[in-house]
Specification:
This is Glycosyltransferase. Keywords: Transferase. InterPro entries: Glyco_trans_2-like, Nucleotide-diphossugar_trans. Helices cover 47% and strands 16% of the residues. By secondary structure, the protein is of the alpha/beta class. Strands 1, 2, 3, 4, 5, 6, 7, 8, 9 and 10 form a 10-stranded mixed β-sheet that branches. Strand 6 and strand 7 form a beta hairpin. The termini are far apart.
């Protein structure tokens, strides 16, 4: 079995007559035990009860802790546990999460993120108010590795409702995180699971959904996305895979648009995310002083997209790196 599927994996419909809850909160976990307790507790504090909510941790053979014991201790019998027989990678673990879910609505809640009180009732109300929506999501806070507030997300609309021109907006750049969004199981059954890449695979999925279904939204801040150096996001920066993956994703997403708009949008999409990556690279250098990551990122960027801004911004970043030893020498304490 491929760790990174080349086409959307099939999600089997539920055909038995066993009880089906309204919600399935599926928590994929891999070496995030230091955060997992907070994740579980954030769900339990708004637990709708076993008849309405399935809560399960799906462990991809973590090596940092005894996850089953942690789930048993924190979940107190309310949270189920399932472990892969071997490490299958994030995409296959998400596929397992969805196939094991039984609820009408599925929330893939990563084991390092959190939800705030009112999340599940608010999203339930969104689905009930906008029954044609295939997915629904909210605004969110970014939090640090320690769990402290960092900054708030973009607000897509001042009032709740169906997002307009959502596929076109998603084609420009990524606009949301896993923790914020819930998808109807029937949508995954029709469209399949995540595939193609391990960085940006969710961007493609939300666009795939937007092509077929409306997406409902609330500006209420009801979720918390944690940024930390052990995440898949940060690991991809170390080898430039983030940029290569995003190049693949943009090509697929733009193909969902009418042909007349594709050429213009592919250039705009790549320009936006390359500019964004350059800003992240600059901030990373200021914070970490890791020149190897900077070199890899800039080299990969130049293989994907180049214009005057990219050349100028890259030159300024590299100049900072090359002048750093001199600056250190003249500013060091005698």
């Amino acid at each position: 079995m491929q760790r990174i599927p080349t086409s959307p994996p099939n999600i089997s419909p539920i055909e038995d007559d066993l009880h089906r809850p309204l919600w399935s909160v599926m928590i994929p976990a891999y070496n995030c035990s230091q955060y997992l307790s907070e994740t579980i507790q954030s769900v339990l504090q708004q637990d709708m009860g076993i008849d309405l909510m399935q809560i399960e941790v799906i462990d991809d053979c973590s090596t940092d802790s005894h996850v089953e014991e942690l789930v048993r201790k924190v979940g107190k019998g309310r949270v189920s546990y399932f472990s892969q027989k071997q490490n299958v990678g994030s995409l296959r673990n998400f596929e397992t999460c969805i196939n094991r879910s039984r609820g009408k609505y599925i929330h893939l809640l990563h084991g390092d993120d959190r939800v705030k009180t009112g999340y599940y009732t608010t999203i339930t109300n969104l689905f009930e108010k906008y029954p044609t929506a295939g997915a629904a999501y909210c605004a969110w806070n970014y939090i640090t590795s320690e769990g402290d507030f960092s900054h708030v997300s973009r607000i897509e609309a001042e009032e709740e409702g169906i997002l307009e021109n959502w596929l076109y907006k998603l084609a420009e750049h990524p606009r949301l995180q896993y923790v914020t969004i819930c998808v109807k199981r029937e949508v995954y059954e029709k469209l399949g699971s995540f595939y193609l890449v391990t960085y940006g695979e969710d961007w493609e999925m939300w666009a795939r959904i937007a092509k077929q279904y409306p997406t409902a939204y609330t500006p209420k801040v009801l979720a918390e996305y944690r940024e930390h150096k052990n995440s898949i996001t940060w690991q991809s920066y170390r080898n430039g895979q983030n940029i290569k993956d995003l190049a693949k994703v943009t090509s697929v997403i733009v193909s969902y648009l009418p042909k007349k708009d594709q050429r213009k949008m592919i250039r705009r999409s790549r320009q936006i995310y390359i500019y964004w990556v350059l800003n992240v690279v600059s901030e990373n250098w200021q914070a970490e002083k890791n020149k190897e990551i900077v070199y890899i990122q800039i080299k990969t960027i130049f293989s994907i997209y180049v214009d005057y801004y990219v050349i100028n911004k890259s030159a300024r970043i590299l100049l900072k790196i090359w002048s750093w030893p001199i600056l250190k020498y003249f500013t060091k304490t005698p």
